[in-house]
Amino acid sequence: MKGIVFTEFLDLVEDKFGLEMVDRIITASTLKSDGVYTAVGTYSFSEMLQLLEHLSENTGISIDNLLLVYAEHFFSVIEKSYPGLLATYKDPIEMISSIENHIHVEVRKIYPDAELPTFEVLDKTEDSLVLIYKSSRAMHHFGLGLMNKTFEHFNSTAKIDLEKIKEDGTEVRFFIQRN
């Protein structure tokens, strides 16, 4: 997993819960990196899981809800760092449906060894989208949060439901209906 995911996560934890919480979750975890991350480094997903688990234990917030909040934060990083990428799109459904064929292509240019989830579009209309998320990492709520922020970015709203195809959350169907 790319380091930017870790550095931004720890920035969010510090902003929301304080530096002491950052120290607490790092200390409670068994991290090969010792909790030292660079944005361009690559680190084990197990480290992110440990950090999330310890943050959840310390805050009483579920991992899924932590991932939603983190996705909102991460979208703001994308807005600031890659405004040209977002400016390519005029519509949230168009943007979300192009994750696999455009956005992930651009991400791989910056981070060639990034392990990204896949998104398969099953059905698309002007106001709806059905897609399948597949990943070895069960971070579908991070994807859900990014989708929510995408609609917000375009001053639009949608009802987004998800259905776990695999119980562990590594394969999920998203149903998106613009309001």
UniProtKB/TrEMBL annotation:
A molecular function (GO) term: heme binding
Domain of life: Bacteria
Domain Heme NO-binding: from-to ranges: 2-160
InterPro entries: H-NOX_domain_sf, Heme_NO-bd, NO_sig/Golgi_transp_ligand-bd
Protein's recorded name: Guanylate cyclase-related protein
